[in-house]
Amino acid sequence: MNNKATPRILGLMAQFDNPAALLEAAQKVRDAGYKKFDCHSPFPIHGMDRAMGLKRSSLGWLVGVAALAGTSGALALQWWSSSVAYPLVISGKPFFSFQAYVPVTFALGVLLSAFTALVGMLAFNGLPRLHHPVFYSDNFARTSNDAFFISIEADDPLFEIEKTSAFLTSTGGKNKEVLKEE
Amino acid sequence: MKIDRETYRLIDNGKIGSIALTIGLMGLVAGTVGFIIDREQFFHAYLTAFIFWLSLSLGGLFFTMLHHIVGARWSVVLRRISENIMAVMPLMALLAVPLLFGLGDLYHWSHEDIIAGNKLLQGKAAYLNTTFFIIRMVGYFIIWLVLSRLLYQVSLRQDKGHQVSLTRKMRLISAPGIILFAVTFTFASFDWLMSLDAHWYSTIFGVYVFSGSLLGMLALMTIIAVTWRKNHILDKDITVEHYHDLGKLMFAFTIFWGYMAFSQYFLIWYGNIPEETLWFLHRWENSWKIVSLVIVFGHFVIPFFLLFPQVTKRRPGMLLFISLWLLLMHWLDLYWLVLPTLHPHGVHFSWLDPATMLGTGGLFIWYLGRRTAAVPLLPTGDPHLETSKHFINH
Fold first, then answer.
1. Is residue A131 classed as helix, strand or coil in its secondary structure?
2. Which residues of A touch B392 (CB under 8 A)?
3. Chain B residue at shortest CA distance from A56
4. What is the rounded CA–CA span in Å between residue B248 and residue B167?
5. Which residues of A touch B270 (CB under 8 A)?
6. Which among B378, B386, B388 has a CA at the least distance from the CA of B5?
7. pTM for this one?
8. Residue of A49, A99, A103 with shortest CB distance to B269
9. How many CB pairs under 8 A join A and B?
10. Subunit contact A47:B265, Cβ cutoff 8 A
């Protein structure tokens, strides 16, 4: 238990002057092969996804499956309840009147899709998350105001404290900080 | 086709204009022959063709006004296309004149003797009578002409300088304009299409016609942009990102059209009142049933799945194909609205259907080509032009 003597290193963080510098640095970090890194900015930056080498989210496929499940489930439920379990004649229409089922089918499809999109988005983002190594930095609060950061996490296979630190300097990073457990 | 990269104007307009004019005039001659041979068939075919091209022009007017009201930036590079489409309005007003001679052939409520023996039509006579019909028709066109003319002029004035105040002015015209548009469009579709069967009524009818019209306009806009792209015109300005958004809009309006079409059918199916169901019954009889099914699948199901994946929306060539298909379906939709009143027991295809279509269409494309050649292809004075050029989807 020597945690207090040498606190565990969780990552490195460097500050950049402006969005353009951040974008350029993100490309270099990507090209160097780092995977577990993130860029922090007060506002969204055009082209950042590509600069960071992020792939297109597969959330769409998940939502697609949910939509299919919703529509087919709703259709099956209405078919079963009104033509198998409780066949009632309503205003002289056939037991299986698909026209009457459309609104519920549509609504359940939308409902399941919307829930899946929300929950899936949170899950893919690793949210809700109560803590993150960057929170150990006092400087980091400025990311919601006027500062731009890149953080590289220590569990990245390429992470070596001296090399990574020198690399961040070479990309134009300033005010480097080692993120440590307190 | 070639473009001057400084002024964004076409130097060489290509041959499309003269070909379209030739086809248009030939179609008109053929139409005149048809008018002499078979008046009823001619006017029904002519009404379908006229409404098809007019609806595209009105779609252009709506898109332009919507663009101004929401302060859209992505669509600035596409705005001149929709403006040119709406600027065809004077031609459409001229093409409306022949309809005045066909009221008796098109609308049974225009016959005094039929009204005399029909209680329902007597009740509607205060609205459905020839004089008021013509007054309304003139009124619609005055509103559409004034709106499109004003917006077009202000937009061209902005090309000369970069005046932000003109952007505000166009927004000021568009806000009341879009309300006037909604009212006039609804009543115009009631007058010209719904009153073909004056016993029948559907309050959603105007929105139904509108949804198909805007979809058709978006398709036409895409066709124009892709044609330019193939000739290396504005291919750096109208990028894949803009096509992606056009694809998304077409996808949205495919769904919107389906939603409206089903809503109209659904309530009538539920209520099951003979007065209302008869309209659908005619369209479900004999060969009309096939047309109805083709519309359900061709206008909704197929484009829905074609436009569903991202990959089709980001390929201009693919979008061109889908747009042509959607325009064909928009025509079939109008054909399905108009012709069953003339041939209630089955499709009766006439040579006048394509002839009037090519006649009015040739003139429409010729006029559109002339407008396009006379102005810069981009709204060069728009403050958001650069933003639009570099627009990226997220």
1. coil
2. 46-47
3. B394
4. 26
5. 91, 99-100
6. B378
7. 0.89
8. A99
9. 16
10. no
Torsion sign, CA atoms B161, B167, B173, B177 = positive
Q: What is the pLDDT of residues A11-68, one digit of tens each?
A: 888 888 888 888 888 888 888 888 888 888 998 888 888 888 888 888 999 999 999 9
User: How far, in Å, are B47, B271, B282, B296, B366 from residue A97 at the CA level?
Assistant: 36, 14, 21, 17, 49
What the block records as the tokens of B365 is: 């494309």
Please, where are the H alpha helices in A32-141?
48-51, 59-79, 98-124
Decide if A100 and B272 are in contact by the 8 Å CB cutoff.
Answer: no
Q: Do A99 and B265 touch (CB under 8 A)?
A: yes
Instruction: Tell me if B392 and A102 make a contact (CB, 8 A cut-off).
Output: no
> In terms of Cα–Cα distance, which of B143, B165, B167 is closest to B155?
B167
Residues in chain A with CB shorter than 8 Å from the CB of B272 are: 91-92
Distant-in-sequence, close-in-space partners of B168: CB < 8 Å, separation ≥ 6: none
Structural element, H or E, at residue A46: none
Question: Is residue B208 within 8 Å of B265, Cβ to Cβ?
Answer: no
Q: How many separate helices (H) and strands (E) can be counted in chain A?
A: 5, 4
Nearest to B219 by CA among B62, B327, B78, B364: B327
pLDDT of residue A3 exceeding 70, the answer is: no
Amino acid identity at B237:
D
Amino acid sitting at position B26: M
What pLDDT, in 10s, does the model give residues B65-98? 999 999 999 999 999 999 999 999 999 999 999 9
- Mention every residue, 6+ apart, whose C-beta is less than 8 A from residue B311: B318
Contacts of B330 (CB under 8 A, 6+ apart): B52, B55, B212, B213, B215, B216, B219, B299
Q: List, in sequence order, every residue forming a beta bridge with A40; answer none if it has no partner.
A: A149
Residues of B with Cβ-Cβ distance to A46 under 8 angstroms: 392
Hunting for tokens 């068939």 — which residue is that? B41
Interface residue B269 vs chain A (CB under 8 A): yes
Contact A146, A42 (CB under 8 A): yes
Query: In this prediction, does ipTM exceed 0.95?
Result: no
* B56 vs A129: CA distance, rounded Å: 51
Residues listed for chain A: 182
Name the closest residue on chain A to residue B265, using Cα atoms. A99
A89 neighbors A76 (Cβ within 8 angstroms): no
Residues of chain A contacting B, Cβ within 8 Å: 44, 46-47, 49, 60, 91-92, 99-100, 102-103
